[in-house]
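lol ok so funny story. i was supposed to be doing the assay writeup but got distracted and ended up predicting the structure for this chain instead. priorities right. anyway since i did it might as well share w the group, maybe its usefull for someone
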Amino acid sequence: MLATPADFDVLIVGAGISGIGMAAHMQMKSPNHSYAIVERRENLGGTWDLFRYPGIRSDSDMHTLGFEFEPWRHEKSIADAPAILEYLNKIVDDRDIRKHIRFGHKVISANFREDEARWHVEMELDDGSRKHMTANFLYLGSGYYDYDNPHDAGFELGAFEGEVVHPQFWPDDLDYTGKKVVVIGSGATAVTIVPSMADKAAKVTMLQRTPTWMFARSAKDGIANFLRKILPDRVAYAITRFKNIKLQDLSFKAARNKPERVKKALYKGIEKALGPGYDKATFTPPYNPWEQRLCLVPDDDLFKAMKSGKADIVTDHIEAFEKNGIRLKSGKFLEADIIVTATGLKLAIAGKIAVSVNDEPVDFSKRYYYKGCMYSDLPNLAVVFGYINASWTLRADINSDYVCRVLNEMRRRGADVVNPVMTPEIKANIVDEDIFGDYSSGYLERAKDINPKNATEYPWRLNQEYVVDKKRMMNDPVDDGILVFSKAGANARQADEQLEAAE
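and the output, tada:
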């Protein structure tokens, strides 16, 4: 037995959606376990506090991006960042979670000592000093992208004399009133920024190399708002959440099974917004719907900006950046006072934390996902990487719930260590699969070499079917013959070596 206990049973990294969700689940389902949240920034909210570009909003409905345990009560289901932050702050304050958060704590490294069955975590504080904490279990809610460095598209911008802005580092004092703006990119960020800047700017042009599939819907969910008037909040929320999960699942499967029919429906929506004379090529990607994430256009805002003449979309390649704008391969010149490089994110694994076991660095690209929550042969650690084809929080919810079940099982058994052990026999019988399947988004393609491995068969995969995952995570026994429970220093490597369950 160790002379002193760890500082915490569970250390949660990140005070965004994933970290706050885990804390709330622990208080409800594992209340006898101590925890702390460490957050590198001075505010909670993660993505929703970091990004400050005009119009920043969810691209998923808040009845699924919201937590299962906390109803979304706002009128708009497609919400802006301030509304999302208000929702998260309410959860933190109502549940007394804030006292567990250590702001200004950037995790640098985490080393698991098997002889102690604890993580030794090194952090850098705002003043540059270092702090050391220990925890039995580490939960990474640190997101999926590099907070310090966005994707570098390799632009040679030296000749351009205007302002260049990346959405990840939006300056508070940027004045674009009456300016000509070119937004480079065609993803969700660009589709959000263009109509939001169009009100004040002289003209906003979205310059895309490749079109993206777009669909419009109301920012308000009429059914949800009606149900809230006649039913208790929690009941109305549960019904709406169920509805939206089912609709999303059906639309995704329709796109995979009948892509031409879905294309026609998407074209029909764009034609309704822009009129029959719209340029179809501008909205026709070289891939089928849901091979990349669809871009949401709430309340037709982008299409309205285009119809008003305040915004347009140009499909072309960049030849060069010049003094007053961008020269395109076609020879066309786009005048610009401001260029916004909405060219995508750079993925980061485990929050760029130097993770090791017994001082041996962990190479995540050689580990397999286990139930989309843990990693093969990596003890006492769990992570959240949300769904590509659905809301991030859906995975955060089921992972948090599952980890609480694991923690409770460890406590029941008197175990210090839990490890998804991949035996040679298991390894010999699994077939690898691309972790993101046939999703072709640039940010996913660029990160293939650093991502963990994925197998064709559950549980060694990051699955993309929430409905299936939820049933498995809730109903399958924690003791599945793969998770090995052991004492500190025991080094159990097989299911038959683990601790017997307490009577």
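DSSP finds 13 helices and 23 strands in the chain. Residues 233-257 form the longest helix (25 residues).
back to the writeup now i swear
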